[in-house]
Amino acid sequence: MPNEQVNWLLKVIQPERSLASLPGGANFGQDAHAALLGLPVAVYAAELTRMQQEAAEAAKALLADEKVASMIDRLPLRQGAKVVVFGDSLTSDPQSWAVILREMLAMRRGAEEISVTISAVGAETTTHGLVRFGQIANAQPDWVLFLLGTNDARMQGPNPTKTLVHHEETARNIAELRHRVSSETRARSLWITPPAANEAQVATHPGLASFGVRFRNEDLERVAKIVRDGNGPVIDAFAALGKPPAADLMVDGLHFTLEGQQRIALEVIRGWSELK
């Protein structure tokens, strides 16, 4: 299997995160994860390690800019703060913005023992998020960062006529997630809008096309507006990254390259650092 295809499988499918969301799933090792992707375990382990090392280098590169480093210093996080990042495959990616953020905090503010837990499962909608919300409540974090809703706007099949989740239900789900954070935890929430997609690239990418995946930016923009219109701080990734994002930021029209994830991380850090 070509390296590009192996990389895509690890970025998008992420069996360790998908299995971990199931009862007993955390007990499965890399042999099971590799088998689910049809890869030799040595290939799986080597590619995952390489991707994680690249994410750490991306974090280091961002911190080399003193303006960015000062943003990390200004993030409103106390000693020992707990952060939960909640999302789908844009966040479960081993090179995701959340991984880069976690690496940056460890490098710059490691002595403060700030923890970043990534709770993300590929293909999940806001409805799935409600089902998994107990993971947030049990963690009792200080902050919850949400990047959720992309798959609500997903469509299936060669000639689809509806999204997986109607936008009115998306609005109700997001309102409920906000309510549950405020009523079941003492955490503050920061929401990130779903970015736009490259519609044509999604429709023709061999991996996404094999699953019948389709996206329209008008649907993603509707979800982004729902997130923007809610209470509390929001990072508008849809507006910041472009419609669609630049080609060099995208892997398949939906998921992001390491550079794209680095860009999302920077947008989150910039917006978050301005909060008190």
Question: Which fold does the CATH topology refer to?
Answer: Rossmann fold
As a percent range, the share of strand residues is 5-15%
Number of domains: 1
**Low-confidence blocks of residues:** none
Provide the residue-averaged pLDDT. 95
Structural class: alpha/beta
With strands numbered from the N-terminus, the spatial order across the biggest sheet is 2-1-3-5-7
**Radius of gyration from CA coordinates:** 18 Å
Major sheet characteristics = 5 strands, parallel
Shape: globular
CATH superfamily: SGNH hydrolase
**Helix content range:** 40-55%
How would you describe this structure to a colleague?
It is a single chain. This protein is of the alpha/beta class. It has one domain (3-273): SGNH hydrolase (Rossmann fold). The chain is built from 15 helices and 7 strands. The protein has a 5-stranded parallel β-sheet with strand order 2-1-3-5-7, with helices on both faces. The chain has a two-stranded antiparallel sheet with strand order 4-6. The longest helix has 23 residues, at 41-63.
